[in-house]
Amino acid sequence: MKILVLNSGSSSLKFQLFLQADLSVLASGLIEQIGETESAAQLSFVDSFEKEQELQISKAISDHRTAIKVMAAMLHESGMLTDTGGLVGIGHRVVHGGEFFHQPILIDETVISTIEDLIPLAPLHNPANVMGIKVARENLPQTPQVAVFDTAFHQSIPAHAYLYALPYYLYEKQKVRRYGFHGTSHAYVARQAAHHLGKSIEELNIITLHLGNGASAAAIQGGKCIDTSMGLTPLEGLVMGTRSGDLDPAILFYLNRESGLDIDELDTLLNKKSGLKGICGKNDMRAISESAAQGDKQAKLALAIFCYRLKKYIGAYMAALGGVDCIVFTGGIGENSATVRWMSCLNMERLGISLDDEKNSIRQKELMEIQTAKSLVTLLVIPTDEEYEIASQTLQVINNS
After folding, report:
1. Element (H or E) spanning 134, and its range?
2. Which of 7, 19, 79, 17 is nearest to 48 (CA)?
3. Phi, psi of 231 (to 5 degrees)
4. Pairing mode, strands 105-106 and 145-149
5. Which run of H or E residues covers position 91?
6. How far from the centroid of its chain's Cα atoms is residue 116's Cα?
7. Which of helix, strand or coil describes residue 394?
8. CA–CA separation, 37 vs 31, rounded Å?
9. Distance of CA 165 to CAs 119, 158, 245, Å?
């Protein structure tokens, strides 16, 4: 039996197929540019001779209903899923679960309706997530399907950390509060860190840093998140590829008055034109690091701002936790940028953080320690695997239902 994981975006569909027995990956796929004149679909899998194979399709894929049919055809052609009766369940990534969902949940009409009610909190993501759920249920009505929420892991955050200093009625009536995101990734790498250290996660204080085009930090105490950097939306917190992260909110009033920017223009400015891109014109950390190494002043500035904000969050969460046992770097930047890891840990020895330059320079796709022997804090690089985490949580829900 097998488990299918779906991540439905506004114009894309990511999917992975897992073997139920050990949650090993059988196939991975991506369909992009859904709704455009020419879409691209690809599937990677290992055949019966243990050779890596790839299928690719380029044609117009008009909507997500068609995309799921294309996915099913590719899985059938590859031999990875010849009969949908072989599916034990489907796990769906859902970005926002609000205060309603603290755990993954078996999907029914009430769950779908609640996710739709939360669209104002995630207008770019929840509609696409719901669309994927509905289409999958139409095509496979007998297959149990589970929603796994990016926000669920952060629902353990206490009120003093999730509430903003705004009139309390805004929380009561409109649920304005910190929700946090990337929860599936933070939960996965925290558990992997505890396993590596040979300790129960309940014994540990962990800071997890999910660093990619979107970036967030989480403070985890006894296996539960007590604070995270993203807020009501993914805009708050760390500097990101195109998002500003933390800033003085009065800047918005100032820009409205002095530049005449309206709400939509300010939204676009902060979410799509700021962050690394706003500082140096690029949002790919690899390109920024290369330009910085060649002496580009704006690239060096962008890198410095990114790492300085990251360092401040590390220090803040060490204080919130009352000390830390382990710091985890994950995500595309966290896993691959030795420069970012080095700069964010620089001159932190008095806090017990000492990074080993030689270990840090190693490139590999497996968990590795990068601290010196004298470091009081374990520094780990752990490749995240959100799809595995979704598959694991999906299986748990189905087994317990």
Report:
1. helix 126-139
2. 79
3. -120, -130
4. antiparallel
5. strand 87-94
6. 21
7. helix
8. 14
9. 24, 14, 18
| Alpha-helix residue ranges (DSSP H) falling in 198-296 | 250-259, 263-272, 275-280, 285-293
Q: Is 16 exposed, middle or buried (0-12, 13-18, 19+ CB in 10 A)?
A: buried
Q: How far is the C-alpha of 279 from the C-alpha of 298, rounded, in Å?
A: 7
Q: Could you tell me which of 308, 310, 301 has the C-alpha nearest to residue 282?
A: 301
Q: What are phi and psi of 326, to 5 degrees?
A: -155, 140
In the chain, which stretches have pLDDT less than 50? none
Spell out the residues 6+ positions from residue 33 whose beta carbon is closer than 8 angstroms to its own.
Answer: 11, 12, 39, 40, 61
Structure tokens of 169?
């009625």
Give the pLDDT score at 34. 86
* Partners of residue 43 on adjacent β-strands: 29, 55
- CA-to-CA distance for 106 and 398, rounded, in angstroms? 7
At which residue do the structure tokens 């690239």 appear? 299
Residue 121's pLDDT is 85
How many residues appear in the chain?
401
User: Which secondary structure element, helix H or strand E, spans residue 172, and what is its range?
Assistant: helix 168-174
Cβ-contact 213, 283 below 8 angstroms: yes
Rounded to whole angstroms, the maximal C-alpha distance in the chain is 66
Strands 25-32 and 52-59: unpaired
Count of helices and strands (H, E) across the chain: 15, 14
pLDDT attached to residue 49: 61
Whether 291 contacts 282, CB under 8 Å = yes
Per-residue tokens: 308: 């300085």
Output the pLDDT for position 302: 98
Query: 267 catalytic, yes or no?
Result: no
Which pLDDT does position 72 carry in this prediction? Answer: 87
Residue identified by tokens 């926000």 is 151
Structure confidence at residue 226 (pLDDT):
98
What was the pLDDT predicted at 274? 97
Tokens matching residue 297? 């002043």
DSSP state of 8: E
Residue 183 and residue 154 in contact, taking contact as beta carbons nearer than 8 Å: yes
Catalytic annotation, pick one of 22, 108, 117, 150 = 150
- Whether the model clears a pTM of 0.85, i.e. scores above it, the answer is yes
